[in-house]
Design a protein that fits this description.
The complex is a heterodimer of chains A (about 200) and B (about 425). Chain A contains 1 helix and 11 strands. Chain A is mainly β and about 200 residues long. Chain A is elongated, with a radius of gyration of 22 Å. With about 425 residues, chain B is mainly beta. Chain B has a domain at about 25-200. Chain B is about 10% helix and about 50% strand. Chain B has 3 helices and 33 strands. Chain B has a 5-stranded antiparallel sheet, with no helix packed on it. Chain B has a 4-stranded antiparallel sheet with strand order 1-13-12-11. Classes of the chains: A mainly beta (about 200), B mainly beta (about 425). The interface between A and B is large, with 46 and 44 residues. Strand 1 (about 25-40) of chain A pairs parallel with strand 1 of chain B.
Chain lengths: ~200, ~425
C-alpha cells in the first residue's frame, strides 16, 4: 500500500515537472492511403485442395485528434473510413502516438502509433437481405514525421490493420442460417499531415 | 535501449501476422440425399412397437379416447387420452412413409409411401394389417424430402433423406451470395428444385391437422395428392377398394369435408366440391387468391382461410380471409385480416383459433365478420395445428409438443397437459 502511494506520488511529481517545461496542446494527424493485402481461400472440394489467390488494395483515410500529454506522448481518438470491396466501414478508436526519436529543432523523427476500437457500419449500404456489421479494429504501426517550416509536419506511416466484420447473408432454399465472419488483415501505407 | 526493443517487437509482430484476409461462411441447411428403398422392405415394415418420444411430429388425429400423432415418415404415436390431464403414450405404430391418416371404427387408414393400408387397431399394442391398395400414390414429400414411386409393379422406390448440415467454408470475402452453394446441398437441392418445378408447386410442410389430406365421408375415403383426389370405397371397412380419381390441377394441399361439401385448399385458391353423390364429387366453384399456403375451415355460411408465407409457399402473404359461402357457387371475400405466420386453424362458433407458427396460438371472437377480435395470444410456444374436440378441449401440436387446452373461456385458455417433443432444430 505504502509502495503504491510512493509510486503515485513519484508519477505526480514527474508529471508536474514535465508540465513545467512543456505545455499540453492539441494534436491532429490526418492521413490517407491504401490497405494492401490479399485473400487466398483454400477449400477441400471432395478431396481436392483448391486455392485461389487475389490481391486486394482498398482506400483508407483517418484522422487522429488528441492532446500532446507529454513531450513524446499524445493520446486521443481516431475516426476513419475504410472502403473494402464489399464493406464501407467507419472505425472509431482510441489512439496513442509516441515519438521514438525526437529532434527538438526540426520536429522530425520516427513515431509509433496504436489505435484500437470498433468499426461501425453507418456509411455502409447493404444489398437486399444482406446485413453487414462492423467489428473490432486494431491498428499498430510506425511512422515518419518530417517537420516543415510552418510548424506542421508531413507524415508517412506503415501500420498493420486488423478489422473484423460479420455479414448476415440471405437465406437460400432449405437454409436456416447463413453468415460470414470476416477478418481483414492489411498493411496500411498512409501519407498525411500533422499539426 | 527502448527503441531497438520496440522496433524488434513491431517487426516480429508484422512478420507473424500475414496480410491475408480471412473469411469464413457458415451455413446451416437441410440436405437431401437420394435413397433407394425396396417395395418389399416398405410393405413389410408395419408393426407395433413400444411407445417412444415425439421427435418430428406431423399431423394429429383424434378418435374416441385415442389420439394419433404422426411421426413424419416413421409412423404413428398412439396416445390414450381418456384423461386429458394425463395423456399416456400407449404404443408406436411403425408405418414406413406415413404422413396422413383417418380412422373409422376400428380401422385406421394410412398412407405408406405409394400404398394405402388399412389397419385394425382394436388392440393398439397388436395392430394388424387387414387391407392394402397398392401403388395408388405416385409421389410425396416429408420435410421437403421427396419420394417417387417407380411405377406399378416396380420393386424399388426412390426416396430422399433429409439431414441438417452445418458447413463452414473459406470465402474470398466478396460476398455476392454465390459463394458456398457449390458443395453438399447443391446437387440434391437442384434435383429437388427440378422436381418441384415439374410438379408446379411443392406441397407445404403439411404439419397441421386442419391441413389433412385424408377425409372420410359416407362410405368413401378421400385422399388428395399434389394434383388428384383419389377416392376409396370403404363399404367393407377392412378392404378399401380403389375408386374414382379426379384431377384438380396442381398444388393441392388440404381437404376439409363439411356436410355434403368438400373444401379443398390449394396454393392458388379454395375449391368447393359438391359431394351429394359421394362417389363422384363435382366442382361447384373456386375462390382464387394469391399463391400461398392455405388451410381452410368452414362453418354453415363462412369459410376461414389462412394464407401464409414461407419458403415452401413462394410469395405468399400472411393473412386470414373471411369468405361468405352462403352461395356455394359464388364465394365472396368479406374481409382480410393481417396475421403473422398462420398455419392450422380451428373454428367453434363464436370462436376461431389460429396457430401462428413460432408466434404462438391466438384465439379470436368471430361473431362479427367485419370486426374479428383477438381475445388471447399465447406466444411462448410453437403452434402448428389445432383440433377442437367436444367438451371445449383443444389439441394443439407444435414443435415443442402436443398441448391440450380447455377453451371454455376463450379469452383465457387453460393448459391441461403437454406431451413434450424432442425435435431436431433447424
Amino acid at each position: 500500500m505504502k509502495k503504491w502511494a510512493f509510486v503515485l506520488l513519484f508519477l505526480a511529481s514527474s508529471m508536474a515537472q514535465a508540465q513545467d517545461a512543456f505545455k499540453r496542446h492539441y494534436v491532429n494527424m490526418t492521413e490517407f492511403g491504401g490497405l494492401f493485402g490479399r485473400v487466398m481461400p483454400e477449400n477441400n472440394w471432395n478431396g481436392t485442395l483448391n486455392r485461389t489467390v487475389t490481391n486486394r488494395v482498398n482506400f483508407t483515410m483517418q484522422t487522429f485528434n488528441g492532446v500532446q500529454l507529454k513531450p513524446r506522448l499524445a493520446v486521443g481518438a481516431t475516426v476513419g473510413v475504410d472502403w473494402y470491396n464489399t464493406a464501407l466501414l467507419m472505425p472509431i478508436a482510441a489512439g496513442v502516438r509516441y515519438d521514438l526519436t525526437r529532434n527538438k529543432t526540426k520536429k522530425s523523427g520516427l513515431f509509433a502509433s496504436f489505435d484500437a476500437g470498433y468499426a461501425v457500419r453507418w456509411l455502409h449500404a447493404d444489398a437486399t437481405n444482406y446485413e453487414t456489421k462492423g467489428g473490432m479494429m486494431l491498428n499498430p504501426g510506425v511512422g515518419l514525421k518530417i517537420g516543415m517550416k510552418s510548424g506542421s509536419a508531413l507524415i508517412l506511416s506503415l501500420t498493420y490493420k486488423r478489422q473484423q466484420a460479420r455479414v448476415q447473408n440471405p437465406l437460400g432454399w432449405n437454409e436456416s442460417s447463413n453468415f460470414e465472419e470476416r477478418v481483414y488483415n492489411r498493411m496500411a501505407f498512409r501519407v498525411g499531415v500533422s499539426f | 535501449m527502448k527503441r531497438p526493443l520496440l522496433l524488434i517487437f513491431l517487426l516480429t509482430a508484422l512478420s507473424q501476422w500475414s496480410c491475408t484476409d480471412r473469411c469464413e461462411q457458415t451455413r446451416r441447411y437441410k440436405r437431401y440425399t437420394p435413397v433407394t428403398l425396396t417395395v418389399a422392405q416398405v410393405r413389410q415394415g408395419i408393426r407395433s412397437e413400444a411407445a417412444r418420444e415425439l421427435v418430428n411430429p406431423g399431423k394429429i388425429y383424434a378418435k374416441g379416447n385415442y389420439l394419433f400423432i404422426n411421426e413424419l415418415k416413421q409412423g404413428l404415436h398412439i396416445v390414450d387420452n381418456t384423461n386429458p390431464a394425463a395423456p399416456r403414450k400407449v404404443a408406436f405404430l411403425a408405418i414406413p412413409g406415413n404422413g396422413d391418416l383417418a380412422v373409422r371404427g376400428n380401422i385406421l387408414y394410412a398412407d405408406s409411401y405409394m400404398d394405402l393400408v388399412a389397419l385394425n387397431i382394436a388392440d393398439p399394442l397388436n395392430v394388424k394389417e387387414v387391407g392394402r391398395v397398392g401403388d395408388v400414390f405416385q409421389s410425396g414429400q416429408f420435410d421437403g424430402a421427396w419420394w417417387h414411386s417407380s411405377g406399378v409393379g416396380s420393386v424399388t422406390l426412390s426416396d430422399s433423406r433429409m439431414d441438417i448440415v452445418t458447413e463452414t467454408i473459406k470465402t474470398d470475402c466478396e460476398n455476392n451470395g454465390n459463394s458456398g452453394i457449390w458443395r453438399g446441398g447443391w446437387l440434391a437441392t437442384s434435383s429437388f428444385d427440378s422436381r418441384a418445378l415439374s410438379s408446379a408447386a411443392p406441397a407445404t410442410s403439411g404439419q397441421a391437422g386442419s391441413m389433412a389430406r385424408f377425409a372420410l365421408y359416407d362410405r368413401y375415403l378421400y385422399t388428395v395428392s399434389q394434383s388428384d383426389m383419389q377416392l376409396f370405397d370403404i363399404k367393407n371397412l377392412e378392404q378399401p377398394q380403389r375408386g374414382a380419381k379426379i384431377n384438380m390441377g396442381w398444388g393441392i394441399e388440404t381437404i376439409f369435408p363439411y356436410k355434403d361439401k368438400l373444401f379443398i385448399g390449394s396454393n392458388s385458391g379454395m375449391f368447393i366440391y359438391d359431394n351429394a353423390n359421394p362417389s363422384k364429387p363435382t366442382l361447384l366453384s373456386t375462390f382464387q387468391h394469391a399463391f400461398a399456403c392455405d388451410p381452410v375451415v368452414v362453418t354453415d355460411t363462412r369459410a376461414y382461410v389462412t394464407l401464409r408465407s414461407g419458403t415452401n409457399c413462394r410469395r405468399g402473404s400472411d393473412q386470414l380471409d373471411v369468405i361468405d359461402i352462403t352461395n356455394l357457387s359464388n364465394p365472396t371475400l368479406i374481409k382480410t385480416y393481417p396475421m403473422q405466420n398462420p398455419h392450422g386453424l380451428g373454428v367453434d362458433l363464436p370462436n376461431l383459433f389460429i396457430c401462428e407458427g413460432k408466434h404462438g396460438l391466438k384465439s379470436f371472437d368471430i361473431s362479427s365478420d367485419l370486426n374479428v377480435k383477438q381475445l388471447e395470444h399465447l406466444n411462448n410456444m410453437d403452434a402448428y395445428d389445432v383440433i377442437l374436440l367436444p367438451n371445449k378441449l383443444m389439441l394443439m401440436i407444435g414443435k415443442d409438443g402436443l398441448y391440450q387446452f380447455d377453451y371454455a373461456n376463450p379469452s383465457q385458455l387453460r393448459q391441461v397437459s403437454v406431451i413434450p417433443v424432442k425435435r431436431l432444430e433447424i
